[in-house]
Amino acid sequence: MKSQWILFGWLVASSMASAQEPPVNITPDVVYGHKDGLAMTFDVFTPKEKPNGAAVLFMVSGGWYSNWTPPQQTWGMFYPLTSKGFTVFAVRHGSSPKYGIPDAVSDVRRSVRYIRMNAETFHIDPNRIGVYGMSAGGHLSLMLGTASDDGLADNKDPVMKVSDRVQAVVAFVAPTDLTIAVREAPNRLPAYDRFPALDLAMAPAKAHSPLFQVTADDAPTLLIVGVKDDLVPIAHSQRIQAAFNEQKVVNKLVEYPNSGHGLVPMEMQQAATEMVAWFETHLAAPK
Predict the structure, then answer these.
(1) Which domain, by its residues, includes 162?
(2) Edge-to-edge strand order for the sheet containing 129-134?
(3) pLDDT for 64-118, tens place per residue?
(4) What angle do CA 170, 175, 81 make, to 5 degrees?
(5) Whole-angstrom distance, CA of residue 26 vs CA of residue 45
(6) 87-92 and 55-60 as β-strands: parallel, antiparallel, unpaired?
(7) For residue 281, which of 128, 71, 87, 108 has the smallest C-alpha distance?
(8) Cα dihedral 215, 207, 220, 144 in deg (nearest 10)
(9) pTM across the whole model
(10) Which of 59, 71, 114, 281 is the most exposed place for a label (fewest CB within 10 A)?
């Protein structure tokens, strides 16, 4: 489930107009929490011109590994969003193999709470927050769309009292059912042996599978898949779309016939256009 976000960044950066300096203000390494004495961080990319007040979180995750890259090298990948006025947050989580999927889900949920609590600082509307990611990042995006809450009122940490709900989701090639990927699964694909994060018992695997968390109040969700994907087969997205339809959750599934787990360049660019349009529709300012 290696994420294609580096390739995505290269594609969109190469297709955009050249600029001597980034058309965004970059705020690097904002600390949204701590664990085991370590800081959890995200980078902020704020449009210099005509910010629209909406926020989009990008899940920095592939195989539930989350790596740091200098933000001066990654701003281009967010240009399709920042050029439309969206403020983008590149969120890192506790990385595999040290941290597992439950940790990653908990981390990114905290990031939403922190961003919403500090919405005024980031000049965003706390009620217009979207999220997207690829592969494992798509899984985490779907978990935010399906398994969030309105805040934990009894928690002593003020961040945890804030809602971690999002208002729109875009999930690229995302695994939705971990119960068929963990070691206990009888027909598990051998390729999953490469991902230590999938060393989960069946119960937590189900609890952290978006497919089993779908309810009627979930965020509008765009699913983007490659028909030829043999790592995260298209059935993952088809099954969760069926669950969304049953619960009458607004959703759309876009299938790209020439792509596998990594979308081919032309279809990746088409997918980026679909993503931006989805966020423009579902994170629009109220009239």
Answers:
(1) 5-282
(2) 24-35, 38-47, 87-92, 55-60, 129-134, 168-172, 221-226, 251-256
(3) 999 999 999 999 999 999 999 999 999 999 999 999 999 999 999 999 999 999 9
(4) 20
(5) 5
(6) parallel
(7) 128
(8) 130
(9) 0.94
(10) 281
Residue 57 falls inside a structural domain:
yes
Residue 9: band (very low, low, confident or very high) from pLDDT cuts 50, 70, 90? low
284: Cα within 13 Å, side-chain hemisphere: 7
Establish if 287 belongs to a structural domain: no
Q: Which residues contact 154 (CB under 8 A, 6 or more apart)?
A: none
Three-state secondary structure string covering 225-243: EECCCCCCCCHHHHHHHHH
Q: CB of 51 within 8 A of CB of 81? A: no
List the CATH number of the domain containing 28: 3.40.50.1820
In-domain check, residue 171: yes
Put residue 37 in one of left, alpha, beta given phi > 0 → left and psi -120 to 50 → alpha. left
Number of structural domains (the chain) is 1
Do residues 58 and 137 touch, judged by C-beta distance below 8 A?
Answer: yes
Distance of alpha carbon 98 from alpha carbon 95, whole angstroms: 6
Q: Is 37 helix (H, G, I), strand (E, B) or coil?
A: coil
118: in domain: yes
Q: What is the pLDDT of residues 194-221, one digit of tens each?
A: 999 999 999 999 999 999 999 999 999 9
Strand pairing report for 38-47 and 24-35:
antiparallel
Please provide the distance, in angstroms rounded to a whole number, between the alpha carbons at the two ends of the chain: 40
Write out 85-149 in H/E/C secondary structure. CCEEEEEECCCCCCCCHHHHHHHHHHHHHHHHHCHHHHCCCCCCEEEEEECHHHHHHHHHHHCCC
Which helix (H) or strand (E) element contains residue 270?
helix 265-282
Q: Residue type for 199, please?
A: D
